[in-house]
Sequence to fold (478 residues):
Amino acid sequence: MLDVLTEVLGRAPARCTYAEARHVATDDEDLLVRNGRVDHVESTASDGVGVRVRAGGGWGFAATRQTSRSGVERALARALAIAESQPSAPAGPLAAVAPARGHWSCPHDQDPFDISLEDKLALLFAAEERLRGDPRIVRSEATCTGRRVRTAFASTEGAACTQERVECGASISAVAVAADELQVRSYPGSHGSAAACAGWEHVLGFDLAGHAPRVAAEAIELLTAPPCPAGRATVILDGEQLALQIHESIGHALELDRMLLMEASYAGTSWVVPADLGRLRYGSEHLHVTADATLPAGLGTFGWDDEGVAASRTALIEAGLLRAALSDRGSAAAIGLGGSGGCARADGFARQPIVRMTNVSIEPGEAGSLADLVADTGAGLYLETNRSWSIDDRRLHFQFGTEVAREIRGGELGRLLRNASYAGVTPTFWSGLDAVCSAPEWRLWGVGNCGKGEPGQTMRVSHGTAPARFRDVQVGVA
Fold:
């Protein structure tokens, strides 16, 4: 396919000032065992080419499932016609980029698509069975997913590269009901947070069956646990919840297209503006955040983004001070940045690249282990595993619910509390950060359902976190 793309673009009309083509072939698999039965086994595949061109100051895009040379040529012609039909306007600059050349692939030991369906279902059945046994468990689930994406990219600027990535993940959950109370517990996380750019060995490492009895027992215990009290408290967020907090209140807020109002009609804007770069205090001196598309196993990891910009690591926030934004070639040039942040990503072949976060992570601190942090806290709450989230379209006011809260008393984790939630305002909340656990506690969490764009696109990203402590947080009942 790379040969086809480069040959077609090599004959692009002279009236086209820039053109790029992406071939994307995607295989997806999703398995779910629920209440002792196979709920579904879904396997899908897509294959096609998207072509984007610039002519007369306008952009045009067309996609096709016809991956022959003639099919790509027709897509190029349609994209050019769309670009030329746009109202005449000066062509905005694009940040310069070195032509992408070569091949990149995601390291893995066992391709999940090489594992038999029977073996995958056997693992899920073994885990799901150990969730059942108590009549208060009304729903028990075990699920696993796999994805393989192969791409080829070429441009009239000389780019010619290929990539192949493999992703997989798995999780279990138990829903317990008694009278008018419903509680859920998940492992290793909720909302697909266990997925990674890795092989089947990643799934085996979870030991789902080994953790299932604890998950079920905690779901039942939550039915009669005291409610999380309302008020202001010191809070420690576990890694998964902190990952979602970063995603919603930092990652999206620092996407430059939102800051430039390019997403206002769909995903929203941001409370941050471009003039804040290098000046805004986003949080406390303990807040160090990076965007890193080179992290091993990250869902936001790649060799080149979908504009052919090489993967890189960028410090977004240093000691609480905003340093950079997430950008593509167009948005970076619009505010005079020296280069793109390498954050142009598209959902498959039939969508255009837009600004999407890569692996946005909080760097490890010096607070030691979780046990050390709890011991240093004295009294407060440990909030674990996301259950719900809500945030305004400027990424400023938020409220999150967690599956469980654990009381911290006397420097130790105590009883479970149910229906926990916390709320805040982004800069105030991050200013309350006063400790982050050390590197051994740091790990990646995936977000597989990040929506943005018009028409809508779903993207997968990861966030590296270690448990962190926040002072004076509003907590209450979800």
In short: The chain has a mean pLDDT of 96. The two ends are 51 Å apart (CA to CA).
